[in-house]
Structures are given as structure tokens and as C-alpha cells.
Design brief:
It is a single chain. Strands 7-9-8-10-11 form a five-stranded mixed beta sheet. Strands 1-2-3-4 form a four-stranded antiparallel beta sheet. A two-stranded antiparallel sheet has the order 5-6. By secondary structure, it is α+β, with helices and mostly antiparallel strands. It is built from eight helices and eleven strands.
Length: 243
């Protein structure tokens, strides 16, 4: 029985090679079919890519701002993080960061509030709303990190007041001081937001094009993103790794 089974496998492999149907071609057919199925069933969701995961039969579905998982038929979708318990690595977060990398050097830094800490040799960019409590938490974490230049792209998405505060900060004589005074010391900006604030509109357009769906969103110098108020110890580690 074992000999017959081995012969059958060998014949199947020979036939696949003859027809040019290797494993990669079969995988492409599966993911293409799965993509069509999910797009038909998930309404307005835009699927950027579908890839295999380390778990047989489970596929990674990249929606741009989110990764979900599906079986090969598209009948079942699972939402949540995939974690490698051996390394305690969050595979979902790592893949999302990798697939959403940007070209950091091409960011329009002239539209950001620039804060230099120490020698400023390391760089990060942050999309931040002045009324976002998690953004304030991130600013507190940044107090303990030295030798970094922080480019804050004002990204008022929470309320009309966020827009007013962003305009006032942008129009201040010292934008960095105005930003930190508000975020760290709760001193509201007082400058009238009547200067040219086109940069803020450009930031909103840029953020949407980069799938920045929440604040704060941190971009590292190597192009990776870190969503949310990252703790100071992890932020320091990630900044160092990116340089």
C-alpha cells in the first residue's frame, strides 16, 4: 500500500511538472479565487493582498489598515492577532507594519511641527490630533527619549475644535513651543489661526492616502509604522532599530 501511494505521488508530481502546474501556480489559483470570493462577500472592503500564513489552510487577508484571516474557501473569516507563542511575536502587527511601509525621506516635512531633542540625530514622524488623549500620552513618553527629531503632522480628525487648535498652533510664532505647551502642560494655543493653514489640509489628504486611520500614528525612519500610544521603552527600542 505504501509503495502504491509513493508511486501515485511521484506520478502526480511528474504530471504537474509536465503541465507547468507547480505549487506556486496552485497557490496563485487558490489566492485569486479566495480574493474574488471575499470581495464579493465583504462589500466595500478593498483587499490589497492575500498570502499564506504559517498555519496550513489559513490565509492572511490584508485590507490596508487591518489584517484578517480566512480559510481557503472564504466561508469563514477571523478577526484578531496571530501570535507566535515561541517568540511571543505578534505576527499580525509585524506583517501590517511591513506591508504598510512608507518612504520616510519623501514625507513633506515642511508641513510638520519640528521638535528637536538632544542632537536630533534620529528621526520619527507622528500624525497627531491635538485633542487626542493617546497623543498626549505619546508626548509624555517622548519626554524620556533623547537625540531624536520629531516631525508632528497636525492631523485634526476628532472634532472642529481639533481643527481650530491645529490652525492656532500652526500660526504660532514658535510652533514647537505652542504644541508642547498644549500637549504636555495643557496651555491652550492663543494665536489666531488666520495664517496660511494649507499644510493642515495637505496633512489630512496625505494621511488618508497612507491609511492613517487613527491618532497617534508613528512612522519610523525605516518606513515602519507604530499605531497608538507606544510605551517609552518600546518606542526607544524601535527608534534605535530603525537607524
Amino acid at each position: 500500500m505504501k509503495t502504491t501511494f509513493r508511486l501515485a505521488l511521484a506520478a502526480a508530481a511528474t504530471l504537474a511538472a509536465t503541465l507547468g502546474l507547480g505549487c506556486s501556480a496552485q497557490a496563485d489559483q487558490t489566492t485569486d479565487k479566495l480574493k474574488s470570493t471575499l470581495e464579493a462577500r465583504m462589500g466595500e472592503a478593498t483587499i490589497k493582498s492575500i498570502d499564506k500564513t504559517p498555519i496550513p489552510g489559513l490565509y492572511e487577508v490584508n485590507l490596508g489598515t487591518q489584517i484578517v484571516y480566512s480559510d481557503a474557501t472564504g466561508n469563514y473569516v477571523m478577526v484578531g492577532d496571530l501570535v507566535d507563542t515561541r517568540s511571543n511575536k505578534n505576527l499580525t502587527e509585524a506583517r501590517l507594519a511591513e506591508t504598510n511601509k512608507i518612504d520616510f525621506a519623501k514625507l513633506p516635512f515642511e508641513n510638520a511641527v519640528k521638535v528637536v531633542k538632544g542632537n536630533g540625530s534620529r528621526k520619527i514622524a507622528v500624525f497627531s490630533d491635538p485633542n487626542c488623549p493617546y497623543c498626549k500620552q505619546l508626548e509624555s513618553s517622548l519626554k524620556s527619549i533623547d537625540n531624536v527629531t520629531v516631525y508632528t503632522f497636525l492631523y485634526p480628525v476628532l472634532s472642529p475644535d481639533s481643527t481650530e487648535k491645529s490652525k492656532s498652533i500652526w500660526c504660532s510664532k514658535d510652533r514647537a513651543m505652542s504644541w508642547e505647551s498644549w500637549m504636555l502642560d495643557r496651555k491652550p494655543p492663543t494665536t489666531a489661526g488666520t495664517c496660511d493653514t494649507a499644510a493642515i489640509d495637505k496633512n489630512l489628504k496625505l494621511g488618508r492616502s497612507m491609511n492613517v486611520s487613527g491618532t497617534p500614528t508613528v512612522f519610523l525612519a525605516d518606513g515602519r509604522r507604530l499605531p497608538g500610544a507606544v510605551p517609552a521603552d518600546r518606542l526607544e527600542k524601535e527608534i534605535s532599530a530603525a537607524h
